[in-house]
Specification:
The complex is a heterodimer of chains A (284) and B (268).
Chain A: E1 8-20, H1 31-39, E2 43-56, E3 61-66, H2 72-79, E4 87-92, E5 95-96, H3 101-106, E6 108-111, H4 123-132, H5 138-151, H6 168-180, E7 186-190, H7 198-214, E8 218-223, H8 226-232, E9 235-240, E10 243-248, H9 250-255, H10 267-275
Parallel strand pairs in A: 3-8, 3-9, 6-7, 7-8
Antiparallel strand pairs in A: 1-2, 1-4, 4-5, 9-10
Chain B: H1 4-24, H2 26-45, H3 53-86, H4 89-94, H5 99-129, H6 140-167, H7 172-186, H8 201-206, H9 208-222, H10 230-261
The chains are: A alpha/beta (284), B mainly alpha (268).
Bound molecules: adenosine-5'-triphosphate (ATP) and magnesium ion.
Adenosine-5'-triphosphate (ATP) sits between chains A (17, 19, 46, 48, 66, 68-74, 224, 283) and B (262, 265, 268).
């Protein structure tokens, strides 16, 4: 068979974005001097994901570690059928995400940095809406959501409050409940803990560990938190300017960088050595 | 294969969600409802004292049908605009549902909502116009069937209108407004289409609103039977059967474009 059934297989995926170039001008041109520019706009191409391949097995948490703008979310969106890749292919449990997107979407869900909800509706209303799209009844959805939220340290009685009144951390927990109540076999976690306070962060991380041991799911997690990657991920890829520049277990990655004065390198040092920048640096 | 039962259950998700949103914004709804009344009144009053009571009803029907049409189209495109703003569109698009289910669900809500609002305004009209508006001779069966059949076409137009906010949540709505004004111009809402410049008239022949208005006016003013409107209704049906796949195709092309160039994303 051409595609052995792995959980997730990404092969040679590339994604370009095009945007209009902002040409800088030395002097302050007058308005009319700038007019012609309005009509002749130069396009520039940004290669957000550059020939990326990866494979993740069932029961594994695969981490993607990268700075802001390195292409993590773009890759996740390609996997989750929200972006069409320009090259390469992606298979989820053997099904092509472009050609059989409906089938793939049934078994997949995603949590993004931004907890996107109808802010004036309550968590319960948002979750019931989301669950119905997966053919799950309101009662089942509410029961499952309650169980998940309680484990995340979210007081179930706040489920009927409008979401705009909830803190960002609470909203993020609802987003995690939204993804999990459909029992996805492929779970895409795009910076699920970014911007959370230490307590919420731990709640979420513990929960992710629990899911791994309870369900036979494939989990992809992007982050720029070294400790989180180390704690949760079985394997980690380091992404820089859309490319994977290293991949392996934490041990393997650390082995790639010579130890300094006897002590083994940390993941952070590996990251700096390989990308030439701190994780906080932005891509230009 | 389209599993009809499952897809029907799923499309209910959109209806429920939107009615939940209506509940949350109830005070705004009351404001908009008052605006609909004011609008119908303003138009109807043009003829009071100048024409017969039929003339008044003629204009009021125009205002109501136009109100229904624009509310319906706006709701369909609003649903997309809103999801683009909140960023939930990515989650809706990730769900394992056929796009047709998603869009038909939104359109069904829009039709129900439009009917509810327009029905309420219609019910209030006699209180304002007194003997000028007599709903006693209306043929409600003809009217109901006309609304049902024309809804098909309006779903088709709604689908096309929804692609603008898909591509631009900021400006898309204005584009939807342009389609509405075009329909207003050519469909004989406040005047007979014969007064249109000749070169514009063909547009009115393909506008479903033209036939909708004709049959609704016949039903309300002349107590016309369904049989007497059969020809008109058949045309309306044909336009609907053509417009739905066309609208769906237009949306599909827009969605593909958005997924290729990355227009669905709002943040993150
Ligand atoms: N929809 C889009 N349209 C245009 N450009 C985009 C789009 N999405 C991403 N990009 C660009 O692609 C590059 C990679 O962005 P991406 O969001 O994938 O990075 P990221 O690793 O997720 O960053 P962060 O850590 O900030 O979330 C950036 O240069 C970004 O500006
Ligand atoms: Mg990102």
């Amino acid at each position: 068979m051409e595609h052995p059934i792995h959980g997730l297989t990404v092969r040679g995926v590339t994604k370009d974005f095009h945007r209009t170039k902002r040409t800088h001008q030395a002097e302050n041109p007058r308005f009319y001097q700038r007019l012609p520019q309005l009509f002749k706009r130069e396009k520039e191409t940004i290669r957000a994901v550059d020939n990326i391949s990866l494979e993740v097995g069932i029961g594994e948490i695969y981490g993607i570690l990268g700075a802001n703008g390195s292409g993590k979310s773009t890759l996740i969106r390609c996997i989750s059928t929200l972006l069409l890749p320009d090259a390469g292919d992606i298979h989820v449990f053997g099904d092509d995400v472009v050609k059989e997107s409906l089938k793939v979407r049934q078994v997949m869900n995603r949590v993004s940095v931004e907890a996107s909800f109808f802010k004036r509706l309550s968590s319960a209303e948002n979750l019931i809406y989301a669950a119905r799209l997966y053919g799950i009844s309101a009662e089942t959805a509410e029961k499952r959501a309650r169980a998940i939220l309680e484990r995340l340290g979210f007081k179930a009685k706040r489920m009927n409050e409008e979401m705009e009144n909830l803190s960002r951390g609470m909203q993020q927990k609802v987003a995690i409940a939204r993804a999990l109540l459909t029992s996805p076999m492929l779970l895409l976690l795009d910076e699920p803990t970014t911007g959370l306070d230490p307590k919420s962060k731990r709640d979420v991380q513990t929960f992710i560990e629990d899911i791994r041991s309870e369900r036979n799911a494939v989990i992809v997690l992007t982050t720029h938190d070294m400790a989180e990657a180390e704690r949760l991920c079985d394997r980690i890829a380091i992404i820089d300017k859309g490319r994977f520049i290293a991949e392996g277990t934490v041990k393997e990655l650390i082995a790639q960088v010579p130890s300094q004065n006897g002590a083994p390198a940390t993941l952070e040092e590996v990251f700096i050595a390989l990308t030439g920048k701190e994780i906080g640096d932005e891509e230009d | 294969m389209l599993n009809l039962v499952r897809e029907t259950v799923v499309s209910y998700a959109f209806i429920e969600r939107n009615f939940n949103l209506v509940k949350r914004y109830l005070s705004w709804e009351i404001l908009f409802f008052s605006y609909s009344i004011v609008n119908a009144l303003t138009i109807g009053l043009i003829m009071v004292g100048r024409g017969t009571s039929d003339d008044v009803l003629y204009l009021v029907i125009g205002a109501l049908v136009w109100g229904f049409l624009s509310v319906m189209m706006r709701e369909v495109s609003d649903a997309i605009t809103w999801e683009r703003w909140e960023g939930t569109i990515e989650y809706t698009f990730m769900a394992p549902i056929h796009r047709i289910t998603h869009l038909v669900g939104s359109c069904l809500f829009a039709i129900l909502y439009g009917l509810l609002r327009t029905g309420l305004v219609l019910a209030i009209m006699p209180h304002f116009f007194g003997e000028y508006i007599d709903l006693g001779r209306a043929n409600w069966l003809t009217m109901g069937i006309t609304v049902a059949v024309s809804s098909l076409s309006f779903i088709g137009i709604g689908l096309m209108a929804a692609i603008f906010p898909l591509l631009s949540p900021e400006k898309g709505q204005a584009a939807t407004g342009i389609i509405q004004s075009l329909l207003l111009l050519v469909s004989g809402i406040y005047y007979e289409i014969e007064v249109l410049p000749e070169w514009l008239q063909p547009l009115s022949w393909i506008s479903p609103a033209t036939y909708t208005l004709k049959s609704i006016r016949a039903a309300m003013l002349e107590n016309a039977s369904v049989a007497s409107q059969a020809g008109n209704l058949l045309l309306l049906l044909i336009i609907g059967i053509v417009l739905i796949p066309v609208g769906f195709w237009v949306f599909h092309v827009g969605e593909k474009y958005a997924k290729r160039v990355g227009r669905l994303k709002r943040s993150g």
